[in-house]
Specification:
This protein is mainly alpha-helical. It is 64% helix and 5% strand. It folds into three domains: 305 residues, no CATH class; 96 residues, no CATH class; 107 residues. It has a six-stranded mixed β-sheet with strand order 5-4-3-6-8-7. It has a two-stranded antiparallel ribbon with strand order 1-2. Its main location: membrane.
C-alpha cells in the first residue's frame, strides 16, 4: 500500500488537511498577532495600496509584504473571516509536510518519508503554528522547500536550483533576510563539514539568481521609493538591531528553545537523540547521498543555534527545525519497525515517557491548583489532554512488554494525533480570554459612520479588523511608534487632554479601556455608560452618551 508516491502523498494530504483545517475558523482572532496580520491586509484592500503596509492607518514596516498579499487574496475569495485569515498558514503547513515526505522518501525510502510526514503533521508545535495567522509557518514552509530543493539539486538535477532560489525569495518576501541567511548558513556549514568546496560554484546558478532578484527586488524597490524611511527601519532596525539587542523586550536565555523543542515534539521527543546520533555517525562516502544525514542534522542544528543566540526569541521561531528532525526520526522509526529493535525502542520510549507522564499529570492537576481561571473552565479543557498522554504512554509500554516495537510505534502515532486534535477545543478557550471579537460584538450593532472608536492605554489589534475602521489610540504608541511619528493627522494618537475634548464633544465615542485603569479614569470623564465587558472582565466598553436605537 505504501509503495506508491501518489498513495502516500494523498494520505498525507488528507491527514494534514484534516488536522490543520478542521475547525480552523471556529474561534476569534487571537491577540495580538492574528489581529495585526489580518488588519494590515484588510487596510490594503480598503486603501488599494498593496505596496506600503499600514496598521491602524500608519506605516508598519516590521515584516515584508508577501504574507499580507496572501491573506488579502484569501479575504477576496472567502470574505474577511477567521478561516480566510488562517488559510495560508494552514495550506503552507500542508506543503511543508508534503516536501518533508518527498525528501525523506527519496533518501530513505517511501515508508520513511511517510513516517516523517506523519510525525511532522502530528508534532504539537508544528500543528499549533499551522493554526495561527503568523508569518512563521509560511517562512518555515518556504525554507523547507528551499532546503529540499538544494539537496535534490545535488543529488539529481541542477535545475532544482530554480526552486531553491524561488523558495528563498518567497521566504525573504515573507519575513526578511532570514529567508536567505538561514539556508545559506546551513549550506555553508555543510560545505565546511563535508569539505565539498565545489558547492559554491555549483550553487551559483545564474538562472536561479536572476529568478531570486526578479521575485524580491520589485516590491523592495517600490516600497523604498514610496517610503524613504523603509530601508533603515526594516534592514537595520528590524534585522541587526533586533537580533543583537533587547530593543523589542523579547530577550530569553540561550536555553529558551530547548524546553520548547522537547514539548513541541511530543510524543516523539525521546527518539530525537537517537536519530541525530545515527545521522552524525552514519556512513560517509563519496556520494552526496552518503552525507544526507549530516545535511539534515546541520539543517536542524544551525537554525536552532541561530535563534538560540538571538536576543529576540519567540516560540514559533524554531518551526523550521522540525522537518529535518521529522525525517531523521521517521527513518529511525522505520528501522526499529523492520528490525524489531527492542533495545532502541526502550531508550526512545523511556525518554519520551518522562515528558508525556510529566505533562499528562500536569494537565490533570493544574486546573485544581491554579487561581487564574475558574477550575470548572479549565477541567474540560486540560484534563482530557492529560488522560490522552497517560493512557497513550501506558498502551505504548504495554506494546513494549509484549515485545512488539510495532505496537509501540502505532500507539505513539495514534496518541500524537489524538493529543493534538484535543487542542482544537482549547482554541475556544483562547477565543474567550484572548480575542477582540467579544469587544467588537458589543460595539458593532450600535456603530454608525460618524462614531468614534477609541482605545485607552492599550491596543487590541483585532478590534479595527472586526469593526472595519481605524481606532483612536489614547496614551499608546507601542509598536506603532514608528508610523505614529510620521502620521500627519494628530487626532489618531492623542493624550488625556485631547481625549477629554473628544469625549465631551458632539460625537458618539465608544471607548475600550483596561479594567485596571478604569477606576482612575472614571472620575475624569463625568457621565459614562458601561456597555459591557469581555469575558475575563479585563477590558470594558464605555460610551459617552446613551445609545440611540434605530
Amino acid at each position: 500500500m505504501f509503495k506508491s508516491h501518489r498513495v502516500n502523498l494523498l494520505l498525507l494530504l488528507i491527514l494534514s488537511s484534516f488536522l490543520f483545517f478542521w475547525m480552523l475558523g471556529g474561534h476569534g482572532l487571537l491577540e495580538p498577532d492574528e489581529g495585526r496580520y489580518s488588519e494590515i491586509p484588510r487596510e490594503m484592500m480598503e486603501t488599494g495600496d498593496y505596496v506600503t503596509p499600514r496598521l491602524n492607518g500608519v506605516l508598519y514596516f516590521e515584516k515584508p509584504v508577501l504574507h499580507y498579499w496572501l491573506t488579502a487574496s484569501a479575504f477576496a475569495v472567502m470574505g474577511k473571516t477567521e478561516l480566510a485569515s488562517r488559510f495560508w498558514p494552514a495550506a503552507l503547513a500542508v506543503v511543508g509536510v508534503l516536501f518533508t515526505y518527498w525528501l525523506g522518501a527519496y533518501l530513505y525510502g517511501k515508508r520513511s518519508g511517510l513516517a516523517a510526514g506523519v510525525i511532522l503533521a502530528s508534532s504539537l508545535l508544528y500543528f499549533a503554528i499551522a493554526q495561527i495567522n503568523l508569518t512563521d509557518m509560511p517562512v518555515s514552509s518556504f525554507i523547507t522547500v528551499a532546503m529540499v530543493a538544494f539537496l535534490m539539486a545535488r543529488l539529481q538535477n541542477r535545475r532544482w536550483l530554480l526552486l531553491f532560489y524561488s523558495a528563498m525569495a518567497l521566504a525573504v518576501l515573507t519575513k526578511g533576510l532570514i529567508g536567505l541567511v538561514l539556508p545559506g548558513a546551513v549550506i555553508l556549514c555543510y560545505m565546511i563539514v563535508t569539505r565539498r568546496w565545489s558547492i559554491v560554484k555549483d550553487t551559483l546558478y545564474l538562472p536561479g539568481i536572476i529568478l531570486f532578484f526578479a521575485i524580491t527586488v520589485p516590491w523592495f524597490w517600490a516600497v523604498c521609493r514610496a517610503n524613504p524611511d523603509f530601508f533603515h527601519f526594516f534592514f537595520i532596525h528590524e534585522h541587526f538591531v533586533r537580533y543583537a539587542t533587547k530593543v523589542h523586550n523579547r530577550y530569553e536565555p540561550v536555553w529558551f528553545f530547548v524546553p520548547i523543542l522537547l514539548v513541541g515534539t511530543i510524543p516523539w521527543t525521546g527518539f530525537i537523540p537517537q536519530a541525530l546520533m545515527e545521522a552524525i555517525k552514519g556512513r560517509k562516502g563519496q556520494d552526496e547521498s552518503d552525507w544526507a544525514g549530516i545535511y539534515l542534522a546541520l539543517w536542524f542544528a544551525v537554525i536552532f543555534a541561530f535563534f538560540s543566540l538571538s536576543s529576540s526569541k519567540l516560540i514559533p521561531y524554531i518551526v523550521p527545525v522540525l522537518p529535518p528532525l521529522a525525517i531523521l526520526v521517521g527513518r529511525r522509526a522505520v528501522r526499529i519497525w523492520d528490525e524489531g529493535d527492542l533495545k532502541n525502542t526502550l531508550v526512545g520510549l523511556s525518554l519520551s515517557s518522562v515528558l508525556t507522564v510529566l505533562f499528562g499529570v500536569a494537565f490533570v492537576v493544574y486546573p485544581y491548583v491554579q487561581d487564574r481561571l475558574p477550575s470548572e473552565l479549565l477541567v474540560p479543557q486540560l484534563v482530557h489532554k492529560g488522560i490522552i498522554l497517560l493512557v497513550g504512554t501506558g498502551l505504548a509500554w504495554w506494546g513494549y512488554l509484549k515485545g512488539s516495537p510495532k505496537k509501540v510505534l502505532i500507539c505513539l502515532t495514534i496518541t500524537g494525533i489524538i493529543f493534538i486534535l484535543s487542542f482544537k477545543t482549547g482554541f475556544s478557550l483562547y477565543d474567550r480570554i484572548n480575542s477582540a471579537r467579544q469587544l467588537s460584538d458589543i460595539i458593532k450593532p450600535h456603530l454608525r459612520e460618524d462614531d468614534v472608536v477609541a482605545q485607552y492605554g492599550d491596543y487590541n489589534q483585532g478590534l479595527p479588523f472586526y469593526l472595519e475602521r481605524r481606532n483612536v489610540l489614547v496614551n499608546y504608541l507601542g509598536e506603532l511608534e514608528f508610523g505614529a511619528k510620521r502620521e500627519t493627522d494628530p487626532s489618531w494618537f492623542i493624550g488625556d487632554r485631547e481625549f477629554l475634548e473628544l469625549w465631551n464633544g458632539h460625537r458618539q465615542v465608544f471607548l475600550v479601556v483596561p479594567a485596571r485603569v478604569w477606576s482612575h479614569l472614571e472620575d475624569k470623564l463625568g457621565k459614562t455608560y458601561i456597555m459591557g465587558k469581555n469575558w475575563r472582565e479585563n477590558d470594558l466598553v464605555i460610551t459617552n452618551r446613551p445609545i440611540e436605537e434605530d
